[in-house]
Design a protein that fits this description.
CATH class of the largest domain: Alpha Beta
Number of domains: 2
CATH architecture of the largest domain: Alpha-Beta Complex
Number of strands: 15
Radius of gyration: 20 Å
Order of helices and strands: EEEHHEEEEHHEHEHEEHEHEHEHE
Strand content: 25-35%
Shape: globular
CATH topology of the largest domain: Quinone Oxidoreductase, Chain A, domain 1
């Protein structure tokens, strides 16, 4: 099969198109013919091997153990591994039912920048007919992160004022819509060229961070795309407000922006405001919740651009350069 591979860590020029063996599904896994793959920030981190703790987490110290990046996908079931039952077949033990050859699905897999990829059966759902593959592939990881940031970490309630910093990115575009679906008054923060996008997502107010400072106070601040000091972020909160640090990038090779998250967690016990940092949980229940939000019309994946498989390096550059308005997607 054709796949985008890398043999060393680095920027997008380490990626190349190659012919490699098609993967085989293991126990509890499904082989998918990929139709589209989302490009999330994690793909860049694993490609670059930065910050260095990424390598210590089992991805390879000197070179990547897995050669193919990409984890969000929409595709067609090609084959199922041991322990995965077909449609209407009652499984036993850990068996998963309802997946048959030819079924259109979406979810979270491994090595998705390729013609074929494997995924855990319990991280796949049938693709809604109203959701094109490109939009379905944009949904899983970024959508889960946004949902859990708004619902679980921010505990957003109807009528609350929510500030979304980084509202035009992959996670931010979902966070704006999910917060609105929860009944919040949402202010989105972005650069000038992306104001119209954030407005179309339903934000009640939009702040151009290149032209005006952030003002006001909010019940919840979701910091997805910034590197503002904790003191500044706390100043934007009501006395018992909630700060959720979802992301933030620096050039640091050791921490890469996670230092703010660590400092927030250390400070949290000593202040009245709630400060949280988290790693999203990948689970089918929340994927199902996202499908319900999409089905109700409350959430629509915002796809910036699509790139063919052989242009995957350009897709990752667009994400890394900050030019994307929503999600970048690779089509296969």
């Amino acid at each position: 099969m054709r796949a985008i591979v890398q043999d060393v860590y680095g920027e997008a020029d380490v990626l190349r198109l190659a012919e490699i063996d098609r993967p085989e599904p293991g126990p509890g896994e499904v082989l998918l013919r990929v139709r589209a793959a989302g490009v999330d920030r994690g793909a860049w981190h694993l490609m670059a091997g930065l910050p260095y703790p990424v390598r210590l987490a089992g991805y390879g110290l000197r070179a990547p153990k897995a050669r193919v990046r990409g984890r969000e996908l929409a595709g067609v079931v090609e084959a199922v591994g041991p322990g995965v039952a077909g449609p209407g077949v009652a499984g036993s033990g850990e068996a998963v039912t309802g997946l048959g050859r030819g079924e259109e699905v979406f979810g979270i897999g491994e090595g998705c920048f390729a013609e074929y990829a494997v995924a855990r059966a319990d991280l796949l759902l049938p693709r809604p007919a109203a959701l094109p593959p490109e939009q379905a592939a944009a949904l899983p990881i970024s959508g889960l992160t946004a949902l859990q940031a708004v619902r679980d970490q921010g505990r957003v309630r109807s009528g609350e004022r929510v500030l979304v910093i980084g509202a035009s990115g992959g996670v931010g575009t979902f966070a704006v819509q999910v917060a609105k679906a929860f009944g919040a008054e949402v202010t989105g923060v972005c650069r000038t060229s992306k104001i119209d996008l954030v407005r179309t997502l339903g934000a009640d107010h939009v702040v151009d961070h290149t032209r005006e400072p952030l003002r006001g106070t909010y019940d919840v601040v979701l910091d997805i795309g910034g590197n503002r000091r904790l003191r500044e972020l706390r100043g934007l909160l009501v006395p018992r407000g909630r700060l959720v640090i979802v992301g933030g990038e620096t050039d640091g090779r050791l921490l890469g922006g996670t230092d703010r998250q660590l400092r927030a967690l250390l400070l949290a016990p000593f202040v009245r405001q709630t400060m949280r940092a988290f790693v999203s949980s990948e689970n089918a229940a929340d994927l199902g919740a996202l499908v319900e939000l999409v089905g109700s019309g409350a959430v629509t994946p915002a796809v910036d651009r699509t790139f063919p498989l052989d242009e995957t390096p350009a897709a990752i550059r667009r994400l890394a350069d900050g030019h994307a308005r929503g999600k970048v997607v690779v089509t296969v």
